[in-house]
Design a protein that fits this description.
Keywords: Amino-acid biosynthesis, Cytoplasm, Isomerase, Lysine biosynthesis. One of its GO terms (molecular function) is diaminopimelate epimerase activity. Pathway: Amino-acid biosynthesis; L-lysine biosynthesis via DAP pathway; DL-2,6-diaminopimelate from LL-2,6-diaminopimelate: step 1/1. By secondary structure, the chain is of the alpha+beta class. Helices cover 18% and strands 44% of the residues. The protein folds into 2 domains: 122 residues, Roll (Diaminopimelate Epimerase, Chain A, domain 1), CATH 3.10.310; 124 residues, Diaminopimelate Epimerase, Chain A, domain 1. The chain contains 4 helices and 17 strands. Strands 5, 6, 7, 8, 9, 10, 11, 12, 13, 14, 15 and 16 form a 12-stranded mixed beta sheet that branches. It has a 5-stranded mixed beta sheet with strand order 4-3-2-1-17, with helices on both faces. Strand 2, helix 1 and strand 3 form a beta-alpha-beta unit. The radius of gyration is 17 Å and the shape is globular. Bound molecules: ligand LBFN2T5F. Ligand LBFN2T5F binds next to helix 2 and helix 4.
């Protein structure tokens, strides 16, 4: 079976064309072993591209622990690049993911992915919580380069109120009016990843909600590169949210499933 390795700002994924339904989707151990960086191909997750009756294709996302999870923004951008590579789409598409339909377009190699509207941004004393397709805890700090993301993120992810279901955890530093540095601990990877698409989307909206920025076109600096999030603010929350950035094929190979 042919697999493809893609990366979007260093968030890396194994992609497989599963339109013939050849994959045993309950084989959690196999997915985990393929994502292992020493004994497998290596990746923050594995994504299946499947047929859909209502859209160009369907995205099925697994974290590197082998479990199917909620929406992956960088994975969403990578599967759009993969669908173009396979000749399923040209430069515009609509596909189905676990959180519903997503529009996307590719312009000069950059993938623009529309995210679901966000109506609820919860603000607490020293953090915010919102769901951008996946759950995100957002915490501001003055020197994000120095935080131990793995241990601090894990403490927050397993503590109340998140506990078993967990959350992704984002640490944010404001660099200027429209630019923020973000480091993310990802649930299901249980470590820092170089970038998280739903995470930077959550950060952009949270910073606007807090009044840290007034712009609706925000630059996000991740460990793996630059992303951009644009949106509209309405009386009902945030709409027309787009996650924008690169997504590239790294290599392909053959595996026994
Ligand atoms: N890397 C992702 C987020 C993937 C899902 C997350 N790990 C979870 O289980 O909540 C992104 O780019 O959004």
């Amino acid at each position: 079976m042919t697999f493809y390795k893609f990366q979007g700002t260093g968030n890396d994924f194994i992609l497989i064309d599963n339109r013939l339904q050849l994959i045993d989707k309950n084989n959690t151990k196999r997915i985990e072993s393929l994502c292992d960086r020493r004994f497998g191909i290596g990746g923050d997750g594995l994504i299946l591209l499947e047929d859909s009756d209502v859209a160009d294709f369907k995205m099925v996302y697994y974290n590197s622990d082998g479990n199917e999870s909620t929406m992956c923004g960088n994975g969403g951008r990578c599967i759009v690049a993969f669908a173009k590579f396979l000749g399923i789409i040209k430069n515009e598409t609509e596909f189905i993911a676990v959180d519903g339909p997503h529009k996307a377009k590719i312009e000069n190699g950059i993938v623009h992915l529309q995210m679901q509207d966000v109506h609820d941004v919860q603000s607490y004393d020293n953090h915010l919580f919102l769901d951008t397709g996946s759950p995100h805890h957002v915490e501001m700090m003055t020197n994000v380069g120095e935080v131990d993301v793995k241990s601090t993120g894990a403490k927050i992810r397993y503590a109340k109120p998140y506990e078993e279901e967990g959350t992704n955890v984002n640490f944010v530093e404001q660099l200027c009016e429209n630019r923020f540095a973000v480091r993310t601990y990802e649930r299901g990877v249980e470590d820092e990843t170089l970038s998280c698409g739903t995470g930077v989307t959550a950060v952009a909206l949270a910073m606007h909600h807090l009044g840290k920025t007034k712009v609706t076109d925000v630059d996000l600096k991740t460990q793996g590169g630059q992303l951009r999030v644009t949106f509209n603010k309405t009386n009902h929350g945030y709409t027309n949210i787009w996650l924008v950035g690169p997504a590239e094929l790294v290599f392909k190979g053959e595996i026994e499933w």
